[in-house]
Write a structure and sequence with these properties.
There is one protein chain. With 395 residues, the protein is an alpha/beta fold. It contains 15 helices and nine strands. The chain has two domains: 277 residues, Alpha/Beta hydrolase fold, catalytic domain (Rossmann fold); 85 residues. It is globular and about 60 Å long. The termini are far apart. The N terminus is likely disordered.
Length: 395
Amino acid sequence: MKQAILLLATLFFVCLEGYAQKFFVQASASQTLGARAQIDSLLAEFGENFDSQKYTLPISFAVSVGKTVQMTAITYRTQDPLGNEILASGLVAYPVKGALRGTVEVAPYSKEKGLCGSKRLYTLETLPSILGYVVLVPDTIGYGISEDEVIPLLLSRNTAQVSADMRQAVREYFRSVGEKRALPSETSLFGYSLGASGTLALACHYTAHPELGVKLEQIYMGGGAYDPGLSLRGTLQRGENGFLLFPAIAQSLNRWRGLGLNPAQLFTGEVLRDFDYIASCRENPADMAQRYGTDVHTYLHPDCFREGHNEDLLRLMKELDNLVVPGPGEDFPHTVPVYIRHSAQDTFVPVECSDRLVRKLKEVGHHSVLYRRDRSGTHYETAARSFLDLFLLLL
């Protein structure tokens, strides 16, 4: 009898250990939204940045069949770029009722700190949830619960780690609330702008870790800075950038890579004076660019335009070249369809970044690539098109 009791107790604790929450910590807040409310928010946020008439039919269809969605902000354990454990947050959106069609994982684009999904309990990237998908949008480090940290900009492999850990956390969250529907293994990845390079890194991460059980269905990326060094060189050559993120990038690499860059050797004028505020990303970088100017000659140190004369810039460029995604030796899912969109008129991220990525993918034998190189359109206009393109793909 005692042996039987001991065996039952052992089995109990083994089962308890099996259900231990390694990643998920808590759900901090939630709300439900209907399809019409989500689409109205999309149209309001993009405004005139895309021709909504072109999408009237699919939008009307989505409203008619769209599902009521639960938005839940969660906190979970992950790692910072130095490998230390840190709490991160994110937003998971999924239909309240009905079958789950798949998972959509989004590496979010760069934005001001207060606009992350877990704080707003809504973000544009969750829109596919009204079609029956579970949508995962990590805040990434430096936003949400970890907003006091420096944002690890351009450190895409950390974005991938944080995103993959959120997926594990959502599985545990579903279990903790008694959700009978399992998180689907069939997954589409989406990312725009800086989120695009994070998405590409996440695709490589899942390919390198088949034990995670993720079945990639498609990858959609737009306006991405896959080659940060090429992006900065293009900006210096063109002399214009509509997204004042350079100070935040310098701060990120000082914090996480220990570069020891001196802002006074890279910036001048009002941008140097306000470096700490600009680098904090408390304000939208596009709005700051309009205030401080889009002509980089007005705020970059003159030596930045004299080849070989700025040691801090040379050190920065060397580091950026090491951050290209995918990097040497990285795995990539060569059989998964890839959709890439970029505007030739993009003043935030030069289109040459996407040109190079497409060439590289084809050189290594990836032929399921659809590249839309728009002749016109701002970074935001192409973002609106990319969001709606993904939506149409998932209908």
